[in-house]
C-alpha cells in the first residue's frame, strides 16, 4: 500500500528511475563483494532493493492500466506477462544449453 502512495506522490517517471537505481545498486554490491569479500554492503542493499522493487512494480502496474483503452487492458496485461515470462524461458534455456554442453565434454 505504501508503494502505491509513493508512486502517486512522486509520479511514475521519478519512481521508476529511483527504483531502477536500487537494482543497479544491488548489482554493484555483488561486484564489490567479489573484489573485497565484505558482505555488509550486499546485505544492506537487500532491503533497499526490496523497497525499490515494490515501488517499481506499483509504478509498472499503474502504467499498464493507465495507457491502454478500457477494451485493450486485457491485451496489454497478457503482453506484459508474455514478455515477463519469456525472460525466464530464455534464461533457463541458456543455462540448460551451457550445462548440457559441459556435461557432454566430460
From TrEMBL:
Entries under InterPro entries matching the protein: Ion_channel_UNC-93, MFS_trans_sf, UNC-93-like_regulator
Major subcellular location class: membrane
Keyword terms, alphabetized: Membrane, Transmembrane, Transmembrane helix
Superkingdom of origin: Eukaryota
Membrane-traversing stretches: 12-33, 40-59, 79-100
Membrane topology (UniProt): Multi-pass membrane protein
Cellular localization per UniProt: Membrane
PANTHER family listed in its UniProt record: ET TRANSLATION PRODUCT-RELATED (PTHR23294), UNC93-LIKE PROTEIN C922.05C (PTHR23294:SF59)
Name this polypeptide is given: Major facilitator superfamily (MFS) profile domain-containing protein
Organism: Coemansia umbellata
Taxonomic lineage: Eukaryota, Fungi, Fungi incertae sedis, Zoopagomycota, Kickxellomycotina
Amino acid at each position: 500500500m505504501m508503494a502505491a502512495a509513493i508512486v502517486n506522490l512522486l509520479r511514475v517517471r521519478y519512481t521508476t528511475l529511483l527504483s531502477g537505481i536500487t537494482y543497479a545498486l544491488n548489482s554493484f554490491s555483488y561486484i564489490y563483494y567479489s573484489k573485497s569479500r565484505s558482505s555488509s554492503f550486499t546485505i544492506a542493499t537487500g532491503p533497499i532493493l526490496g523497497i525499490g522493487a515494490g515501488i517499481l512494480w506499483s509504478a509498472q502496474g499503474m502504467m499498464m492500466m493507465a495507457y491502454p483503452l478500457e477494451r485493450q487492458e486485457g491485451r496489454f496485461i497478457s503482453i506484459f506477462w508474455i514478455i515477463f515470462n519469456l525472460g525466464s524461458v530464455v534464461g533457463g534455456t541458456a543455462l540448460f544449453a551451457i550445462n548440457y554442453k559441459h556435461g557432454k565434454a566430460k
